[in-house]
Amino acid sequence: MDETKFIEEKIKEIKSTIGTEKAISALSGGVDSSACTVLAHRAIGSNLKVIFIDDGLMRANEPQDVSQIFSDLGIQVDIIDTQEEFFHALKGKADPEEKRKAFRDIFYTVFGREVLKSEAKFLVQGTIAADIIETQGGVKTQHNILEQIGIDPEKGFGFIAVEPLKELFKHEVRKVAEALDLPEKIYQRMPFPGPGLATRIVGEVTPERVSLVRKATQIVEEEIESLKPFQAFAVLLNDKGTGVKEGKRKFGNIIIVRSVESQDALTAEPTQVPWDVLTSISQRMTNELPEVVRVAYEITPKPPATIEYV
Ligand code: XMP
Hints:
This protein is of the alpha/beta class. The protein folds into 2 domains: about 5-185, HUPs (Rossmann fold); about 200-295, GMP Synthetase, Chain A, domain 3, CATH 3.30.300. The chain is about 40% helix and about 20% strand. It contains 10 helices and 9 strands. The radius of gyration is 20 Å and the shape is globular. The site of xanthosine-5'-monophosphate has 15 residues, from loops.
């Protein structure tokens, strides 16, 4: 693929689709939404409003880091704090599909509200080819596919979806993002699911449980970074296990470490993480997180397992 040509063509296409109307882009900080936001900003400049919905399910420091990266590129990002609404919507829900549905519903409620406020006619989305394939295949109920949730993309909330990356696979999007001058931190970034850390919490999603899995994820990312896996993260199980902390028996949390190698996320193999890396992950988790007594490494490929837990 010739990235420069792709970028030129897409900018032209976006310009002719959106014209002088206003558009909105919901940035998540992932490579897909970042690339399509920069593309759309190059095409229509300040007629693009960029929002970052802080749903409370992001990785550590995410909203601040993302808005700084985009501000360095001359793109202003409005951070919208909707954490309470998301936690309220997820409260008491332990079933995976129920959680995903609750996330999707609240996402579109919040999103619809912001889109309406912005008076945008167009919605720029970072949907990529794998999202469409997996949603059609029934593997995933993807929150960013409008049809999937019964919204006619032509009518929606009164806006029209613009999806400039929908023919591309992840590795191609990374090349486009690099060619768009996004920093390596973004174009080399591991994929992160729309419903965020909620997909890595088995059982109820509460602020406390998110905070724990966020800290555990940060440890995994830091320790495993040099191996450059396709995707690596921590998962919080619903069960507790027995451990010994400060000389006393303690019923604590169990964290699963998941790291996979993949091209396009449609299939995946567990990363062959060296023992010393796993040891330091386990030591850091149990030393730095008082709630954690056990750490396990997941060895299942996809299929039969999926990459995320929920
Ligand atoms: P699974 O768990 O289905 O994940 O094997 C495949 C890839 O997709 C990401 N993923 C999601 N991305 N919304 C997203 O935007 C979702 O609901 C979602 N679920 C999974 C996952 O992180 C992996 O890269």
